[in-house]
Every structure is written in C-alpha cells, then in structure tokens.
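Submission sheet (multi-component)
Chains listed below:
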Amino acid sequence: MTPLSSYAADHRRLVEAAAAAANIAEPVAFSPGGYTYYLLKAAVRGPLVPLEGVLLRDWIRNRHFNSGTKFGIRLYTASGIRFAHCTANVNGDYTDEAYDFYVVAKADYVKLFRIAVLASRSRTAGETPPVMPAAQLETLRQNTIGYLDMNNLKRIRDLGGRPKRGLLLTGPPGNGKTSACRWLLNECLRLGYEHQQVSPDAYQAARRSCNPVQAVKDLFAVNRHGIIFFDDMDIALRDRNTVRETDDQAVFLSALDGIDVNEGVVYVFTTNCPLELIDPAFKRPGRVDLVLHFEKPDAALRRALIDRWHAEIVDSIDIDTAVAETEGYSFAEVEEVKNLLILRYLDTKTWEWDWAMNQFGENRAELAKQERHVGFTPLAEPVLNGNGHH
Ligand SMILES: Nc1ncnc2c1ncn2[C@@H]1O[C@H](COP(=O)(O)OP(=O)(O)O)[C@@H](O)[C@H]1O
Ligand SMILES: [Mg+2]
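Outcome: structure written.
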C-alpha cells in the first residue's frame, strides 16, 4: 500500500464510523477551521462514542474548543441538525485533518455552515485592533495569530524548530498594550485557538502556594495551541516598593523554561516598564523573541484614532485642530477628551472641543495634585532607607 492509499483508506473508514455513530446518511467530512468555536457554541453536546473500541477522554476546561476526547467520536446537534466530531490522531498530529474532522449529512451541510456563520457574526462586532502603525500591526499579527496557523506550526515542527514564541509589549500607559491583548484574545476565540490570561493576582497566589514553581508553571500552560497573556507582568513580578525582585523573576523564568510545548504557544507579556529596567535574563531568545513598543501616537495615528469616532462627532469638530492640540497625548488621553466632549454635548447639545480640552487640562492638574505618589511611574527610583536597603 502506498502512503496515500493507506491514508485514504483510514479516512474513509473513520468517516464511515463517525456517520454510523451519528446515524447520518451520505456523510460530508469537513473542518470548521475558524468557525469551530462558534459551531460548538451553537451546538448541544451529545454522547461520546468509542472508535474501533477506543475512547480516550480529554479533560479540558473550555468545551467550545474541543470535543473532550483525544481519540473517539463526539456527537452534537445544532438546531436539530446532527453532526459528529471524529478525533483519531494516530500520530499525535493535530494538524492532520484526515484524522480529525467533522461529519454532517449532505442534506444538512449548507444549513450547518449557515448556523456557524450566524453564530460568528453575533460575536465579531467591535473586533477592531487598536490603532497602530500598519507595519507594527502586521508584525503583531504575524507573530501571534499567524504563528499559530496550523501550516506554519507544522513547518516549524518539520524543520525542528521550537513551537514557542514570546512577545513583550512595552510602552507608556494608555497606548494600546492591553487593547492589543483584548483584540488578540478575540481573534483566538474567532479562530478556535486556546487562550489563557494570567493576572497579577493569579500569579501572586500561585507564587504563595506551597509548590510555587509548579503552580506558576500550571498558570502558563495551555492544552492546545494558543496564546497566554500576562498583562502588566511587572506588577506581578515586583514588590510594591522595589523595582525588581530577582528571586521572583528566577521562579518565573524557571517555570517558563520548564513548560514543554508541542503544539505551539505564544506568550504575550505586557509592561509599562522601560526596557532597561527589565531583567536581561527575561529578554533572552526563547523567553522573549520580539519586543514591540507601543509609543504615544504621532499626528497621523491621532488622526486615525479620531477618524474612528462617531460620524456625528467627526462632522462637528475641526479634525486638524483636534489632531494638533492633542500632541503629546496618549491614545487613552485623546479618548478621554472625547468622553468629556460627549458628556458636555449631553448637557448643552453642542460639540465644544475647546471646553473639552480645558476640562481635560483641569482634571489632569487636579489628578497630578492628588495622586503624585500613587500608580506606576516608570522612572521612579526605589525608596532607600538610611543604610541603603529597601
Ligand atoms: N492604540 C490605541 N488605539 C485605540 N484606542 C486606544 C489605543 N491605545 C489606548 N487606547 C484607548 O485607551 C484605553 C486604555 O488603553 P490600554 O490598551 O489599556 O493601554 P495600556 O495597556 O497600553 O496601558 C483603551 O481602552 C482605549 O480606549
Ligand atoms: Mg495595560
């Protein structure tokens, strides 16, 4: 038998088994790809059925990504349409769709596709990435979503590369690091990639547990290929009063190094901390492969941000003035001016740009007075006591 004929024979046999389990006539095999999440979300789960007498259950947290079996058949119905997911990854190769596919009756195929498309539409609204230079957005996309693409991962594996990637997003607060994470998380949902968010609180809790290295390691592991977000990691990694906690970073780094990945995982770390303050050990390739700076917007980017505002606002203010007067503002600050503008409009029924700018200036002066010592100031020196210790 040639590899192709045995491959084809295997696939035919699996399709038959899945169709019999789901009681489907004229089965069509398909891969829902980016619609997987929506299809499974729109469906009701039926039972698991063994395949060739084998059923291997998979404990996984999110039922919308996965059928809950590593080897076997899962039955589903969506709006009364029966379909099944067959998983028989004989080589442990999740990229091989002849061994990991869905079946539905030919008569229901188009209807099921429509159900998945509809489910995805209800979710995709408002899913725009933050404003950033086009080249930077492309780099971000390629190194996350693009990296996790099955074909890309397969190529990396074939070439013997490490299917693990670390990205560090840096820059002053309010310029889109968290927004970028939120967008990527949405992309994960849309494309059916797993995702995991590690909050500073979750990290601290893991750190305080009796086996911190293992607990931290568990926090940063995914079951399938996907993205792990560690937003504001500097807050988790350092003590409130010191800039750096080397002991903690050592635990963090060894946990990170100890995670074996075989299906592809991207780590996205963010920090407001200037790059010089980050432990060089963290920036080593294999931990962080790429650093992206989220700077304050230049005039073109401020214009791009303002262009996204509601048409009624855009038509009622002078855009050139708005762009010019917000020089040196972060994206978040420009957005705050917009919020003030809207609040004022609700009171006066007029769009008063100058009023909003003045109010913004006043609020900022007031905040500076009250909160001089609160919050994260990137260049703050650690407070030392008389003998030079913290
Ligand atoms: N690049 C951007 N494009 C559009 N809006 C932005 C951008 N950066 C920041 N904002 C606005 O400012 C808010 C705070 O930004 P955030 O992404 O949390 O900043 P960071 O995490 O870098 O401190 C966002 O919710 C969004 O309204
Ligand atoms: Mg943030």
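Remark: The pocket of adenosine-5'-diphosphate (ligand 1) is lined by residues 130-132, 173-179, 294, 305, 331-332, 335 (CB under 6 Å).
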